[in-house]
Write a structure and sequence with these properties.
Chain lengths: ~475, ~325
Amino acid sequence: MSGLDALDLARIQFAFTVSFHILFPSFTIGLASYLAVLGGLWLWTGREVFHTLARFWSRIFAMSFGMGVVSGVVMSYQFGTNWSRFSDVAGNVLGPLLSYEVLTAFFLEAGFLGIMLFGWNRVGRGLHFFATCMVAVGTLISTFWILSANSWMHTPQGHAIRDGRFFPEDWLQVIFNPSFPYRLAHMVLAAYLTTAFVVGAVGAWHLLRNGRNEAARVMFSMAMWMATLVAPVQIFAGDAHGLNTLEHQPEKIAAIEGHWETSRGMPLFLFGWPDMEREETRLALGIPHLGSLILTHSWDGEVRGLKEWPKDQRPPSTVIFWTFRAMVGLGMLMALTGLLALWLRWRGQLYDTKLFHHAAVAMAPAGFVAILCGWITTEMGRQPWVVHGLLRTSDALSPVPAHNVAVSLAAFVVVYLIVFGVGVFYILRLMRAGPETVHVPVPEGVRAAPMRPLSAAGGTVESGGRAR
Amino acid sequence: MSIDLPLVFAAIIAFGVIMYVVMDGFDLGVGILYPFFKDRGDRDVMMNTIAPVWDGNETWLVLGGVALFGAFPMAYAVILPALYLPLMLMLVALIFRGVAFEFRFKAARTRPLWDFAFAAGSTVATFCQGLALGAFVQGIKVSGRGFAGGTFDWLTPFALFTGAALVAGYAMLGCAWLIMKTEGGLRDRLFAMMRPIGLVVLAFIAGVSLWTPFHDPQIMTRWFSWPNIAYLSPVPILVALLGLGLVRAVRRRHESGPFLYTLGLFVLSYAGLAISLWPDIVPPDVSIWDASGAPESQRFLIVGMAILIPVILGYTGYSYWVFRGKVRADSGYH
Ligand code: HDD
Ligand code: HEM
Ligand code: HEM
């Protein structure tokens, strides 16, 4: 066969499916909160433009949410199908966390999603706003639990090990494990930024077509405020996250930095090719002392190098060196965009600087790319462990033959590319159609919808009001 | 500590599974019936009856999976690899039917394709669930704490039979649901379909009930030895009564009757299955106590479940109430 064993295939399958999955939540977490804000502003100010925007984005939300759900269901079964030893060994700890995610988050989202998407004319504005808030809160609760579970795998604590299996001892310690607060903050900010740059790009695109478009102005302005305010916070949160990682997973930091010898006054490499075989970073181009300065906040701080760990415990530096730099670079670009927007706003040129609008359109995928790069850094940086320091990935596998994994992996690749390709295409089409096309005024004072069919409609109202 | 936690969790998971079966059952059933309705307006109506609720319904499937993971990690670690291929196929099928809800209304030229994806996704997902159920009932080979069987252990005549049975069963649920939610000519045709589907389902129930005991002498003695046979006889008798009630409700064109009778049939069949398998969580040898996870995990989880499940049922009920009443072609959204 291809020379890949069941372990490689299962890892590829997990990485592939989860990477697809995370793209949708990243966007829906931010968009749900954005829709809640729009709904609140509409209630508060009564300005029709907020209603128009809410209608517009909720269609896009529906698409993204649907794809997040179907790809997520796959994830929750994957632990059992591909990583059954892991499930058995760590199930006592992780199972309850994921169960709480379903109980507190998924049901909440699903329960109110129907009202949020289909209930415009069936419930009052206040209730509709409430439903939107519940969906938004649900996405954040979901993030809380899943990241707690994931963080525990990076920085496990609060458990005992008996007969090679994990048993929870202190749930608060398990949930609030050392890397969790950092990861949670970093991820939520990442989701918000991702959404902001998508919303900003759509706004900018329509501004380029028509600078007078009020809805486009409003969304562009809102998105740029997010960039201005949140991107710098994200850099700060990322820095704090890195310091936390240095404390708990120093080999990950060494790999991220392509740093081999424990030393003082470590440079910060901007470029290089960490070579796992030769145990050095080739073609390195760095700024002296900056590495130590960032990581230890002192000019001559000591940072441990990869050679301190046996070869079979070193994370693959070559990859994560670059994914990390891509993420940080994009973070800097986002902050720069935010600053520029602030400056243009101050000069009163935010809505008519075409060059800037083009730049904002180009930044649309920035958040997604940064998030994937961030996750690859985090997860590959944990290798060869599934549960850091305690359970190796190779001991976590299911006793299923490689060809089963290969067949299902091939099916997932084909299906995901088709289905999610089409989904993204529809989303782009909706975005291009723009907010004007959705204007559906709600008659004043509509409460519950008529339970009997409107006799006037006579069943012939073509699906004209529906999305196109 | 006198509460038997594994028992409580077995009950909760059993509850989650029947919730799933019934609720996503009618969603999937609507998809299974799709090919019988060619008219675009009819199809819009059919889909709109379930569009606001399908996501919540599918969440019970996720709950079933993770609650098993949380309370019986060993069972989760055995059952999922054992049913690897059918489950993967089910997931893929669920992807198609799930995205069809959104895509279908966006598509113009490709709409027939998404109609097909919806129908085929629903049918295949259902068939795989039935297949998995059959394979599960037949038993899974275990050694130590892991699955020890082969890749195609699940592929048996019995499992294929239960697969087909579930397709018929969900179609019946879907048909009964649609009778409640639609009107006019569409409803008339659904009424006409209800009786043949019902008879097929009753035949399947009889078939599965007679076939199951032959897998395991224990199941045989459980049902057919004295005095059990007397205690358990209400189960088949009730099934027969419900079947009669169903036929009558259809004849009188009662709108919610068929759905209620169908629910009754599902609950009874499920109870029959539970009686056969008790107390195994991985038939034929692993009991709920053997597979139980750590008590400290179960205790942590039970607190949340006791509070949250009623709340979930509450707002789920509210959402159904908001969308009560008949659905028409133009009552979609966006
Ligand atoms: C709760 C658990 C959890 C969560 C939330 C995530 N992961 Fe993870 N990840 C795992 C649990 C895990 C795992 C089950 O533990 C894997 C499988 C093999 C392994 O070593 O870890 C893994 C592997 C893994 C790999 C392969 C690494 C390798 O084999 O070298 C990648 C690229 C990712 N993940 C990416 C992600 C992304 C993009 C995520 C964002 C959603 C993500 N992970 C969330
Ligand atoms: C690898 C581990 C993961 C698993 C097992 C998993 C599981 C799931 C499942 C089963 C669903 C569908 C729930 C439903 O039916 O409504 C889902 C959706 C979701 N997941 Fe994940 N997920 C994972 C990673 C993540 C991460 C890392 C995040 C957030 C940072 C996340 C956030 C969400 C959100 C917000 C949803 C709601 C649907 C959406 O917004 O698209 N998930 N996930
Ligand atoms: C510019 C400054 C940034 C810094 C210094 C930074 C730092 C870090 C570090 C050190 C990690 C790895 C933590 C670990 O594995 O233990 C990480 C992970 C991650 N980053 Fe960043 N990051 C930055 C910007 C961004 C941006 C802009 C995004 C997305 C919009 C992002 C998204 C992520 C994600 C999704 C992860 C994986 C989840 C996690 O471990 O939190 N990061 N980041």
